[in-house]
Design the sequence.
């Protein structure tokens, strides 16, 4: 597929003089997932060149590889799990290292899939709970990284239905592109992962989607643009230019017709390398399997991209809930250190994208609990099922 011509420059952007990127060629990692679309589109449509950058995309085999290459400097930035950076910041998702989250790349777009063999008996979380309690052996569920959103949303969904994810099941870590194959071989009974690996299992008749993660938390935070704090501090202009290029890509992806093109790009061997129709099945608006549940959001006038402090703090409450943290952290302090609101706001302002008045938002999750970041310690202690 040939590259389209570079778009006309936005009159407000500056890529020369003192605002020029300190480093123009950036190595950016990604995992083969539908929500890497902003990076693929930024390169395919030339948004990186528009802001004086050359993004070199490098597909990675696992989130652990993304983490390790960010910390070693082999990658300048990456499409990453929100919780990957937070785990590393706290030293619970790998060696401690100060991290930076530059923007959110999407909300939603993940799902929980079960093995087809369970379909006759399990069509709801309540039915799964009865099956788990009646079984003499523990069922095995996979997620993609210990501190990642897939693990935390899967645990939340299980616990809502009375399943203790630390005692009633066995959990394992599997890289996203390998999920459907592990399900096919009978090595796991279910998993939580991003698309298209839920849609693929369903299209092959090996699994079925029992819940979208948007049913757990509507418009939940998902992937982010991550780098080390050192990179952001040493290359603020490059980081800002990268945010601008990806904001342009996210805005492009909000147009339904443009997602048709994106599905074709993502299907290529260098990117997701999955059937185009499988990718499109849950990328295009109106194709999601659960009526009334929002699908993946990339922009929403910038609402999907703002790095809300409360989003990161929610992950911290779940780490505390599940015993990953021995004591309550400085919730707001950690979030302020990781989420680079300054760089995001500067980049958004250049593009005329409004930023919210405050750094937090309010959401109601599947259990009726409201999360707004105002009382994180009490929230973390409020769950009946916990470590």
Sequence:
């Amino acid at each position: 597929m040939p590259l389209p011509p570079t778009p006309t420059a936005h009159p407000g952007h500056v890529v020369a003089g003192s605002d020029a990127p300190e480093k123009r060629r950036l190595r950016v990692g990604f995992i083969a997932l539908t929500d890497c679309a902003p990076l693929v589109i930024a390169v395919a449509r030339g948004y990186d060149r528009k802001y004086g950058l050359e993004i070199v995309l490098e597909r990675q085999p696992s989130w652990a590889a993304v983490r390790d290459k960010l910390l070693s400097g082999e990658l300048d930035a990456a499409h990453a799990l929100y919780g990957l950076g937070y785990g590393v910041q706290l030293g619970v998702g790998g060696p401690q290292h100060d991290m930076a989250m530059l923007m959110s790349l999407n909300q939603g777009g993940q799902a929980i899939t079960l093995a087809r063999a369970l379909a006759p008996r399990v069509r709801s979380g309540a039915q799964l709970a009865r099956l788990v309690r009646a079984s003499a052996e523990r069922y095995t569920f996979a997620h993609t990284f210990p501190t990642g959103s897939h693990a935390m949303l899967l645990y939340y969904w299980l616990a809502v239905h009375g399943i203790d994810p630390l005692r009633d099941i066995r959990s394992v870590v599997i890289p996203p592109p390998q999920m459907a194959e592990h399900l096919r071989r009978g090595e796991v009974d279910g998993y939580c992962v991003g698309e298209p690996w839920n849609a693929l299992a369903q299209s092959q008749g090996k699994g079925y989607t029992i819940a979208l993660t948007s049913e757990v938390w509507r418009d939940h935070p998902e992937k982010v643009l991550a780098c080390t704090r050192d990179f952001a501090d040493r290359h603020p202009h490059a980081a800002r230019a990268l945010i601008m290029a990806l904001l342009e890509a996210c805005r492009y992806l909000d147009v339904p017709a443009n997602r048709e093109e994106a599905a074709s790009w993502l299907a290529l061997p260098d990117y997701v390398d999955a059937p185009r129709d499988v990718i499109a099945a849950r990328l295009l608006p109106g194709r999601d399997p659960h009526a009334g549940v929002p699908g993946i959001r990339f922009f929403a006038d910038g609402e999907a991209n703002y790095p809300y402090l409360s989003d990161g703090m929610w992950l911290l409450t779940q780490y505390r809930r599940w015993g990953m943290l021995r004591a309550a952290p400085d919730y707001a302090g950690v979030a302020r250190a990781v989420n680079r609101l300054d760089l995001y706001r500067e980049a958004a302002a250049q593009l005329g994208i409004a930023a919210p008045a405050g750094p937090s938002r309010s959401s109601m999750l599947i259990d009726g609990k409201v999360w707004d970041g105002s009382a994180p310690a009490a929230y973390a202690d409020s769950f009946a099922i916990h470590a």
